[in-house]
Specification:
333 residues; alpha/beta; TIM Barrel; Four Helix Bundle (Hemerythrin (Met), subunit A); 2 domains; eight-stranded parallel beta barrel; 16 helices; binds flavin mononucleotide
């Protein structure tokens, strides 16, 4: 595989916080990780050290913002400069009502000139590449021609990368969850976009799960972004570094190694005064489809970890799990 081919883990509100991202690094060193979406007003009026904090182990890391005004977007990007993210991404794909009320997210696909101006403004204060994540369309402007027109206008601002979720969003009538499942995936539209604009960099997103899925996109596109599967089945992330041109695949991970890494993270978290559930809530998919998964999930009942004394020790976690390598187990899924 071309070593430039990028695999990234999608921005997901409430899921891809710093603790999930640090956990994800147990499985993949190379994948690009994203923050949760943070709105420009939140950055401008919020507690920056809390909102924008991350651990250097999370890099390469992209900050995703939502904005509806070029001026605010530029100021938000400027405020983030000291945090030295590797890229800044504009969210033009989120269909939630709350986001639409702020005129953020997917509804901006109806205003390509405004999106172009926001990207231009972000670039004016950013020291790092500025990228965009969007849908293939919204509502009744969901044809390929609309998508092409959108990109033609936005590209006047030259974003460094387009991450395209291969389904339209229906802003009225479907909630965000339904908007991630009901509109059919149209990968061909994303491939066609890359063909029609060969000089832009395009990543594809939506419904990608397995190593085989990833490989099927490689001939047509510059990268893939994976959301739910990475979160709900984190061990599947071990494939990412293997697929992206490592000369020798990284050594396989054993359960014990994974648990030892989690234990280290746990200690760091406690040292920083964070309650344990902020890490453990992200682990419930860790052994998805594997022997011991149910016991593990039961053990991780988030409520139990509101009490720090109830959080598991590494030894308890070891005792729950069979000492098989993740390799073997991934082969079985
Ligand atoms: C819980 C959750 C939160 C999400 N939050 C965001 C977000 O903050 N910004 C964004 O651009 N997309 C967000 N998404 C959409 C994902 O980034 C991704 O585009 C979508 O899930 C499709 O990819 P997948 O099929 O690999 O999950 C979210 C998805 C989920 C499941």
């Amino acid at each position: 595989m071309n070593p430039e081919f990028r695999i990234s883990v999608a921005p997901m509100v409430d899921w891809t916080d710093t603790w999930f991202r640090q956990f994800a690094r147990i499985f993949t060193k190379k994948a690009w990780l994203y923050t949760e979406m943070i709105t420009a007003p939140a950055i401008l009026h919020g507690d920056l050290s809390r909102l924008l904090y991350y651990d250097s182990a999370e890099k390469p890391l992209v900050l995703q913002i939502a904005a509806d005004s070029p001026e605010e977007a530029a100021r938000a990007v400027n405020a983030a400069v000291p945090f030295a993210y590797d890229e800044i991404n504009l969210n033009v794909g989120c269909p939630s009502d709350k986001v639409q009320k702020g005129r953020f997210g997917a509804c901006l696909m109806a205003e390509p000139e405004l999106v172009r101006d926001i990207i231009t403004a972000m670039k004016s204060t950013s020291l790092v590449p500025v990228t965009i994540k969007h849908r293939i369309g919204i509502d009744d402007t969901g044809t390929y021609d609309h998508l092409k027109q959108f990109v033609q206008i936005v590209n006047e601002a030259r974003p460094s990368r387009y991450i395209v979720h291969g389904r339209i969003a229906l802003l009225k009538g479907l909630d965000p969850r339904q908007n991630r499942t009901i509109p059919p995936l149209r990968y061909e539209d994303v491939y066609r976009l890359k063909k029609d604009f060969p000089h832009i960099t395009v990543d594809i997103n939506g419904g990608i799960k397995t190593a085989r899925d990833i490989e099927s996109h490689v001939p047509f596109i510059d990268g893939v972004m994976i959301g739910r599967e990475a979160y709900e089945n984190p061990a599947s992330m071990v494939w990412y570094d293997r697929l992206t041109g490592e000369e020798a695949p990284p050594p396989s991970l054993s359960y014990r190694q994974v648990i030892a890494c989690i234990h280290k993270l746990d200690q760091r978290m406690r040292a920083s005064g964070e309650p344990p559930w902020r890490l453990y809530r992200h682990l419930s998919g860790l052994f998805k489809n594997m022997r011991g998964a149910k016991e593990f999930r039961r053990f991780l009942d988030a409520k139990a970890f509101k009490d720090p004394a109830a959080a598991p020790t590494a030894e308890t976690l070891y005792s729950l799990l069979p000492p098989q390598t993740l390799d073997t187990l991934l082969g079985e899924t």
